[in-house]
Amino acid sequence: MNRKKRGVIVGVLGAVTNLILAIGKLVIGLLNGSMAVLSDSINNFGDVISSSAVWVSFMISGKKADKYHPFGHGRFEYVAGFLIAIVIIIVAIEFIISSVKRIITPEPVSFSWLFFGLISASIAVKIGMAVFYHFSNKGIKSITITAAKNDSVQDVFISSAALVSFSLSSLTDFPLDGVIAAVISLIILINGISLIKGTMDNILGKKPDKLLISKIMSTIMDQPMVLGAHDLLLHDYGHNNYMGSVHVELCSSLSLKEAHTIIDDIETKILKEHKVDLVIHLDPVDTFDDEIKILKRKLKKTLQEIDPALSFHDFRLDKENKEITIDLVIPFEMQKSKEKIKSQVQNGFGDKDYTLNFIVDYK
C-alpha cells in the first residue's frame, strides 16, 4: 500500500472514530451536566478536524508535481498541521473561560453507571487508536500521524481525568468538575501551541536531520578525487522530497570534462542512495602552490588560537593584487560580533604582504 492511500485510510478511520466518541461524550456531558466530560467531547471534536486534515493533507500532498507546483505538494501536510493547531488553541481558550465560570458558579453533576461504562470504553478506544496510529506510521513517517498518535495518548489521560471528575463530582461540594475541565483545557492549549511550533519550523525551514546530512557528506567525501565539501543546503518539500546544493572541492589541475564527470557521478549517487536531488558547485583547489599551503596553515593556526569553532573554506589567492579572500565560517551560537571576529583574524594573521578579505558564512 502506497503512502498516500495509507494516510487517507488512517485519516478517515480516525475521523469516524473520533466523531462517534465526540457525540457520545457530548450527550453524556449535556445529560449529566459535567463540564469535564463536555471539555473532553470538544477535545474529540477537535480530533475529528485533525483526522480529517490528515486525510485531506495526504490527498493533496500525494499529488504529483505540476507546472504550478514543480516541487510537488508535500508541504501541504505542514500547512494542514498548522491549521489544526489554530483550531485546537481557539477551542481550548473557549473552554478555559467556560471552566473558570463553572468554578465560580458550580452546578450539580449526576452520576450514572451506564455513562461511567461508556466513558471507560472510550478510554480503551483511544488506547487502541494510539496503537493503530503507531503501526500505521511505520515506513511513512508522517508528522500529522505522529501528532495524531501523541494526541490519542494524551486523550487517554484527559478522558481518565474526566472520568474521575464524573465519578466524584456528585460526592463533594468542591467545584471538582470545573477544576478538572480547566486542567483538560489547559493541556489542550499547550498541545496546540506545541503543534504550531512544530509545523512552523517545517514551514519556515528547519535544519535537516543530522543523520541525513552526515550520510550525504560521507558519500561525497568517500569519492577518490574529492578534497573537501561545504555549504550543504537542503530544502524540504515534504516526505522524502529533498532538494539542495553543496560546494565540492576538486583539484584545479583537472580538466573541465574530468571535473564535470566526477560531479555528475556524485549527484547521481546521492539521488540513488539518499533520495536527495543535489546540485553541486565546483570549487577548484590549487594543491601544488607551496605559498598557498603556507598561508592556509598560518590562517588555520590563527583561527584555532582565536576560537577552535572558527573555520574557513574557499581560499582564493590573488598574487597580482596581493589579496586573500576566504569564506569565514562562524557558528550561529558564537556571541562575538562578526566585526570583532574579523578584526581579531585580521590582526592575528598579520601578513603584511597580503590583504585579507572575508565573506562571512554562518553555520
Number of helices: 10
Which range best describes the helical content: under 10%, 10-25%, 25-40%, 40-55%, 55-70% or over 70%? 55-70%
Number of domains: 3
Tally the beta strands. 6
Instruction: Please state the CA-atom Rg, rounded to the nearest Å.
Output: 29 Å
CATH topology group of the largest domain? Alpha-lytic protease prodomain-like
Largest sheet: 3 strands, mixed
Q: What is the overall pLDDT average?
A: 83
CATH class of the largest domain: Mainly Alpha
Beta-strand fraction estimate:
15-25%
Structural class category: alpha/beta
In short:
With 363 residues, this protein is α/β, with parallel strands linked by helices. The chain is built from ten helices and six strands. It is elongated and about 90 Å long.
Structure description:
This protein is α/β, with parallel strands linked by helices and 363 residues long. It folds into 3 domains: 3-204, Alpha-lytic protease prodomain-like (Up-down Bundle); 210-285, 2-Layer Sandwich (Alpha-Beta Plaits), CATH 3.30.70.1350; 290-362, K homology (KH) domain (GMP Synthetase, Chain A, domain 3), CATH 3.30.300.20. It contains 10 helices and 6 strands, in the order αααααααββαβαββαβ. It has helices at 3-32, 35-61, 76-104, 113-136, 143-168, 176-204, 210-221, 256-274, 290-306, 338-349; strands at 226-236, 242-251, 276-285, 311-318, 323-330, 355-362. The chain has a 3-stranded mixed β-sheet with strand order 1-2-3, with helices on one face. Strands 4-5-6 form a 3-stranded mixed β-sheet, covered by helices on one side. The longest helix has 30 residues, at 3-32. 30% of the residues are buried.
